[in-house]
Amino acid sequence: MKISELSRQTGVPVASIKYFLRQGLLPAGRATAATLAEYGEEHAQRLRLIKALTTLGGLSIAATRDVLGAVDQAHGVEGALGAVSYALPVPGTAQPVESPGEVAEGGEGAEVAELLAALEWQVPGTSPHVKGLTAALKELRRLDAQYAPGELAAYARLAESVARLDLERAVGIDDPVSLAERAVVVLAVCAPVFELLRRLAQEDQVRRRVAGGDGA
Amino acid sequence: MKISELSRQTGVPVASIKYFLRQGLLPAGRATAATLAEYGEEHAQRLRLIKALTTLGGLSIAATRDVLGAVDQAHGVEGALGAVSYALPVPGTAQPVESPGEVAEGGEGAEVAELLAALEWQVPGTSPHVKGLTAALKELRRLDAQYAPGELAAYARLAESVARLDLERAVGIDDPVSLAERAVVVLAVCAPVFELLRRLAQEDQVRRRVAGGDGA
């Protein structure tokens, strides 16, 4: 198909498609003339993914390039999820949270290690998510809003159930590219969906408390 | 205390404190001389909150101002949670997802309404989170990555349990300002913590699948 048809099919403006081509996010089409190229279904699929990552996922062009690189190199559902998981921005660390030299000081690193051990989660200490959680807990302590003992473990048990649903959404897909793309969707695009459900549930529970008369 | 001491106590550079004062995020100190002002514990508390919102929460200065405005006007745990919840950016909509005129077309609005009815959640259709969820589901359908029947409800049930933990973290605080600030922390700052726990749980489960030999 021509670039105009690719634009119509995906809802991405032609100017944006050309930008993604220049940035190397989208592979070039098959040249049919000096200024014309032919695009296929794989371009449409990739374009929908780029759009999802940059809008719903909120990723920068540079981050999108990293994720697509991980997608292209990944094998199998574990490879895809693993590679994509490490390529995506770590939640809560859009801006550096720590001043240099502060990380090693606090007890939060040990707290995270103990939590993982208690949960029997097999995660290497080098995981960016271990570092992210350590930084987040440190920031919460500064705000005097630490989790009470056991509270973090209660959240973690629910996170475990959510992750189980996440993985179920990724199995049963055989084509490696589709599989890797599904990993991106599950990790980057579906995270806001759960956060929205959580906000809605909070709204409901606040309303019930008010109706129950035990509120302020 | 002087501004230099305020900076030391909160870890926020003096230049940033002056910027927050100019932007009206932080109330002015008590003037003690032409170029000197005295700051109190309430300034330190507010400053820690601004820092948390702009770093861990990832909020812009404008969004931070909106949230602080909601904090200052809120009453009680329900008022605080409600006001802050609506003032915060809606997850997944950092950039506009919908083209104009598209929202009313799809069946996602009805899907969200049916979901809320099935869950018996009391949430008005005007909630920004209803609109956000509708837009997210539409985007997932474009990516051919819809939730299977019942899958979204399974996520919603877990979100309900998470919201229950969230509300428990906000009760038992009497001072209205502390209460509103806790609402901000729970809603804006703790969201990444759950997302990090989810990523860690995913890492663990991927590892177990590989070890179990049922992976690629």
Automatic annotation (TrEMBL), chains A, B:
Keywords: DNA-binding, Repressor, Transcription, Transcription regulation
One Pfam assignment: MerR_1
This protein's record includes keyword DNA-binding: yes
Record-annotated HTH merR-type domain positions: 1-70
Signal peptide coordinates: none
Xref: Gene3D superfamilies: 1.10.1660.10
Keyword Hydrolase: no
Transmembrane segments: none
Name the UniProt record assigns to this protein: Transcriptional regulator
Native species: Streptomyces virginiae
